[in-house]
Specification:
Order of helices and strands: EHEEHEEHEEHE
Strand order of the largest sheet: 2-3-1-4
CATH topology of the largest domain: Alpha-Beta Plaits
InterPro entries: ACT-like_dom_sf, ACT_ThrD-II-like
CATH class of the largest domain: Alpha Beta
Number of helices: 4
Largest sheet: 4 strands, antiparallel
Protein name: Amino acid-binding protein
Radius of gyration: 22 Å
Organism: Halorubrum laminariae
CATH architecture of the largest domain: 2-Layer Sandwich
Distance between the termini: 75 Å
Structural class: alpha+beta
Length: about 190
């Protein structure tokens, strides 16, 4: 004997569309986050996942491995439908969590840039945060050369990763930050063959 009448769906069942449950069947997703090294940040990042219907599977918290901005990379695996997955990523970003990778969304292109000027006086951490605020860009590596004190100009080599097809958008974000802080930017040469 069935627990529900014919034609009614049991809780958790989904109506079939085009002969299957593809749109409503949960699948495994991975998000790679960058969190501040402060108490409660990991827990705060997990709430948008749970609140939007994600079923947590695993969390890889790389406490000993920091990003160039001094943050902690965290990889979270969870189950969700595609629609819920998109909502989770949007919720994470609206909560101010830096989503470095979401599912198959990866930073596929890379450019190396040089910044010159008063990088320390203009707050290098803030400069990197402003670049990271552009969803097309992620700062993968930073190398700083600064003389003693802050009177002299310093330089930084940035390795910036951009989403596939969005390198120009990422570069525009770096240009805006450099201009706002009166820093000189040296961009890679385009179209030059060795």
């Amino acid at each position: 004997m069935s627990d529900h009448r014919d034609g009614e769906l049991a809780e958790g069942d989904a109506p079939e569309a085009d002969g299957g449950h593809a749109a409503t069947t949960p699948s495994t997703h991975t998000v790679r986050l960058e969190l501040s090294d402060e108490p409660g940040q990991l827990l705060a990042a997990l709430y948008p996942i749970a609140d939007n219907g994600g079923n947590l599977l695993s969390i890889y918290h790389e406490r000993g491995n920091k990003t160039p901005r001094g943050r902690i990379p965290v990889e979270v695996d969870f189950e969700a439908t595609q629609e819920r997955f998109d909502g989770i990523v949007d919720a994470l970003r609206s909560e101010g969590v830096n989503v470095m990778q979401a599912g198959t969304e990866r930073y596929a292109e890379e450019v190396t840039l040089l910044l010159f000027g008063h990088l320390i006086d203009t707050d290098l951490s803030d400069t990197l945060s402003q670049i990271e605020a552009c969803e097309s860009a992620s700062v993968a590596d930073v190398s700083l050369a600064a003389p003693q004190g802050t009177e002299e100009s310093s330089s930084a080599r940035l390795r910036v990763e951009a989403r596939a097809g969005e390198t120009e958008t990422a570069l525009a974000a770096v240009r805006d930050v450099a201009e706002g802080k009166e820093l000189r930017l040296v961009e890679p040469l385009a179209g030059v063959e060795a």
